[in-house]
Amino acid sequence: MTKGEGGCLCGAIRYRIEGEAAAAMVCHCTHCQKQSGSAFSTILGVPEGQVAITGEPATYRDSGESGKSVDRLFCGTCGSPLFSKVEVAPGMLWVKAGTLDDASSFTPAAHIWTRSKQCWVDTGAVPAFETNPG
Fold first, then answer.
1. What are the two backbone dihedrals, phi and then psi, of residue 100, each rounded to the nearest 5 degrees?
2. What is the pLDDT of residue 78?
3. Phi-psi region for residue 104, left (φ > 0), alpha (ψ -120 to 50) or beta?
4. How far apart are CA 124 and CA 129, in angstroms?
5. Which family does it belong to (predicted)?
6. Cα angle: 125, vertex 130, 134; to 5 degrees
């Protein structure tokens, strides 16, 4: 995924990705399930300096299944989850792929935290990891 634009449901927060995403994943951890209101979260890892944000996201400090801190950034008006900053990946902004204006080019390279995956989700041929890869 190169360059893209997106934003929250109400339009109060917009962003532009200025470069190449370093990673594209599906996270199945229980915290992403609760935060997204779904079975998983689709995310793009982009160096923070390559994302220009207009508007001021609200932040909720979480502790992920790894025990490390996760800042979850969202629109304080409409509640749309937009980004995450994860202690284990400093300098990286995890963009919620569903907030892209055009998410059709999103293709996950991996499924992570599959030990929390819902039993009805099929990861197919995409590599899957019980926790974080590596």
1. -70, 145
2. 97
3. alpha
4. 13
5. Belongs to the Gfa family.
6. 90
Architecture of the 2-116 domain = Alpha-Beta Complex (3.90)
Contacts made by residues 124-133, CB under 8 angstroms, sequence distance 24+:
126/26, 131/65, 131/66, 132/66, 132/88
Starting at the earlier edge strand, list the strands of the sheet with 92-96.
58-63, 69-74, 81-86, 92-96, 41-47, 23-27, 110-112
Q: First-to-last CA distance in the chain?
A: 22
pTM equals 0.89
* Residues 2-22: tens digit of each pLDDT: 579 999 999 999 999 998 899
**Helix, strand or coil, per DSSP, at residue 49:** helix
What's the burial of 56, exposed, middle or buried (CB within 10 Å: 0-12/13-18/19+)? exposed
Distances (CA, A) of 124 to 17, 78, 108, 118, 120: 28, 33, 11, 14, 12
φ, ψ of residue 62 in degrees (nearest 5): -120, 170
